[in-house]
Amino acid sequence: MSLSLNIDYIAKNIQTYIDQENFFDIIDQENIPNILEKANLDPTLFKTLLLQGKTKYSLPKLYKFVQKCKVCVKTFEDAINILKTYETCLKLESSSGLIDFFTKHIENQKNQTQLQNNQTQLQNEISQFNIQNAQLMNEIFKCHNENNQLQQRINKIATIHEIPLKSDFDTAYNFLKELSKKRDNFLEGLTKKRDNIKMPISCAVGLSEKRNSDENTILLEACINEDFQFVKSLTESGCDKDAIDKNGNNCLLLSSANGRLDIVKYLIEIGFDKNWRNKTNGNNPILYASLTCQLEIVKYLISIGADPNQKNNNGCSSIYAASQAILKSLNILFHAAPIQMQKAIMNLHQLLWHQFLVTLK
After folding, report:
1. 185-189 — which CB contacts under 8 Å span 24+ positions?
2. What is the number of domains present in the chain?
3. Structural domain includes residue 105
4. 41 beta partners
């Protein structure tokens, strides 16, 4: 009875003996199987026990000792570790196939778990996207309704004030041009107040933003046509001053190229940037004025601080642009003139070029 109790005690406290590395030294070999049958070992203790036993007993004996040993297995990793112990300590090469099988199983399980996690995450993202999409659709629907209501109000206002909102570009241009004249007359006391308010109302309902085939708005076309009063009326009435044409030019660039100093001065006075650059080609007002030999505009722009050394996207400066423009014009005259006039044209070229350089300085 005492022996049985002793075996139970040793089995229960077997880790102490293993930690002290004296289990196989103090336990008789005939008692080892009985103790190990009652003991509960984890994979690490089991491996340590076998490594200690190998130093004293042969593999066949060691194998008999652990035949009925209970090893706690909680995970596939535990099972693999036990099989590796069999393979290394007991030379059971048959464990190799099981190790590979369980290793692949664990890897597949991890992949499956990762796939499930990814699917769950994807489902959550899809659900979130559907929620956001529904919210966005509601907002779009709301904006659509508000836009319809706004358009209805705009159409009503346009109808009341006899504004041709559905007209083509030329009709809109001429209509606003006529309103501009009436507005000028109103300021002189020659027309009624009703005619004066039509211009800002027309701009407010979008008539001034109609575009022609060159993507010019009414304001851009007025600048091209060098119509100062029309430009002034449009900007004061609330048209889109920042509109650009299909080439990326705004009204200041167009006016600089066309040589209307009064329009250029006015646009800069109401806030246009004297160094504004075309995003497509990098041209600015002084470059355009130089390219078209608009000397007075070049002088004015320099006087208010415009930078004549700025270059466009092709590396062209104001000086280079002016030289090319002058050379091109004089080259045409040179080849068209009689021989006796060609020397005079060359002298004119030198004079013009000198005058332009003086202006830049």
Report:
1. none
2. 3
3. no
4. 71
Q: How would you class 3 by CB atoms within 10 Å of its CB: exposed for 0-12, middle for 13-18, buried for 19 or more?
A: exposed
**Burial (Cβ within 10 Å: 0-12, 13-18, ≥19) of residue 295:** middle
Please report whether residue 127 resides in a domain. no
Pair of tokens at residue 200: 């800002």
248 token code pair: 């990326």
Please list, in sequence order, all residues whose beta carbon lies within 8 angstroms of the beta carbon of residue 193, skipping any fewer than 6 positions away.
Answer: 186
Asked whether residue 152 is assigned to any structural domain, the reply reads no
The first and second tokens of residue 160, run together, are 């009341």
Neighbours of 165 (CB within 10 A): 17
Token representation of residue 121: 């995450």
Residue 242 corresponds to which tokens in the numbers above?
A: 């920042």
Range of the structural domain that residue 39 is part of = 2-93
Tens-of-pLDDT digits for all 361 residues of the chain? 344 448 889 989 999 999 999 999 988 889 999 998 898 899 999 999 999 988 899 988 888 888 888 888 888 888 888 888 888 888 877 778 887 888 888 888 888 888 899 999 999 999 999 999 999 999 988 888 888 887 788 788 878 878 898 899 999 999 999 998 887 665 555 455 566 788 898 998 899 999 999 999 999 999 999 999 999 999 999 999 999 999 999 999 999 999 899 999 999 999 999 999 999 999 999 888 888 888 889 889 989 998 888 888 888 766 666 655 554 444 444 444 455 444 544 554 555 555 555 555 5
Report the C-alpha gap between 43 and 64 in whole angstroms.
18
DSSP conformation class of 306: -
Residues 289 and 350 in one domain: yes
Closest CA relative to residue 310, chosen from 282, 268, 281, 280: 282
**Contact (Cβ atoms closer than 8 angstroms) between residue 286 and residue 257:** no
Distance of CA 12 to the CA centre of its chain: 67
Residue with tokens 């995003």: 279
The CATH number given to whatever domain includes residue 297 is: 1.25.40.20
Residue 151 lies in a domain: no
Contact 172, 210 (CB under 8 A): yes
